[in-house]
């Protein structure tokens, strides 16, 4: 993923470099040297502006080259259509700069006098600057998209992935913290986890991925928020999955046990192939205390 220079910084540094262009010493005639310096300056600004744009267009991954999970995340975070449209706009700006820059550099090199070439230089630099200046919003968006894409989890499709799923606030992140290298935030409110992040753990020399997910509520896809969409994308598109379905039976998490069971049933029905690799986990057992003197095993009360 290429580093995107902020719009103003890029233009500023490009213009400073143009000022440093010196006329070629090999050309003996002072007159011709000055004319050729004008053309060189136009070439320099063209390159300074267009080359990084070309690197962005090539360096940002094409949607059809992404893993389906990454494509789904891209769609949910920045919108795949918007992403493709933006890259195509950046490419359009690059071409516009190349065309205008080349045309003006060629005009400058054909001038009969340094004064005439100077005027073409001034005009040409102005044209290039204007094309780029108008694209401040485009470049700001590109910078934002780059930041978003960098935050997407790196998924190794060859590794088995343990996905922690369940209602919000049931203790998924707490488990990820104790089981793996992942360091998600743990808080006593729903939707603390807002993104998908990968952690790793090793058992007997084998490496595994583990991912925390945002909580799911018992509701239809239309009603679900973007964070729940990320969890569904992980379940739908990651290969080689083991589902660790986390439930809080204390009723403290904010989702009733019935709703948690409904979510569990929904995932199992939607992804029946996952039944074979499914582990139910019950958290917050420490809040459960068994009163042996009042009915023995099976008689329970919620502890504090
Ligand atoms: N008593 C007790 N509290 C726990 C246990 N596991 C988690 N908690 C608490 O439950 C709250 C929620 O924990 P998280 O790990 O953030 O839950 P989550 O499922 O990741 O929540 P979201 O990211 O919002 O979906 C926090 O206050 C944790 O400290 C447990 O085993 N016992
Ligand atoms: Mg969490």
Major sheet, described briefly? 5 strands, mixed
- Ligand inventory: guanosine-5'-triphosphate, magnesium ion
CATH topology descriptor of the largest domain: Four Helix Bundle (Hemerythrin (Met), subunit A)
Structural class: alpha/beta
Helix content: 40-55%
What's the overall average pLDDT, rounded?
Answer: 90
CATH architecture label name of the largest domain: Up-down Bundle
- Please provide the count of β strands: 7
CATH class of the largest domain: Mainly Alpha
Organism: Chloropicon primus
Pfam families: MMR_HSR1 (PF01926), NOG1_N (PF17835)
Protein name: OBG-type G domain-containing protein
Region (Disordered): 1-25
Explain this structure to me?
- The protein is elongated, with a radius of gyration of 29 Å.
- It has 304 residues and is α/β, with parallel strands linked by helices.
- 50% of the residues lie in helices and 13% in strands.
- The chain has two domains: 7-151, Up-down Bundle (Four Helix Bundle (Hemerythrin (Met), subunit A)), CATH 1.20.120; 161-302, P-loop containing nucleotide triphosphate hydrolases (Rossmann fold, 3-Layer(aba) Sandwich).
- It starts with 6 loop residues before the first helix and ends with a strand.
- The structure holds guanosine-5'-triphosphate and magnesium ion.
- Magnesium ion (MG) binds next to helix 7.
- Magnesium ion (MG) binds at residues 172-173, 184, 192-193, 212.
Could you give the topology of this structure?
Elements lengths: L6 H13 L10 H30 L8 H10 L2 H30 L4 H20 L2 H16 L9 E6 L5 H8 L17 E7 L2 E7 L13 H12 L3 E8 L8 H14 L7 E6 L4 E3 L9 E3 L2
Parallel strand pairs: 1-3, 1-4, 4-5
Antiparallel strand pairs: 2-3, 6-7
Helix pairs in contact: 1-2, 2-4, 2-5, 3-8, 4-5, 4-6
Bound molecules: guanosine-5'-triphosphate and magnesium ion.
Guanosine-5'-triphosphate (GTP) binds next to helix 7.
Pfam families: MMR_HSR1, NOG1_N
Protein name: OBG-type G domain-containing protein
GO molecular function: GTP binding
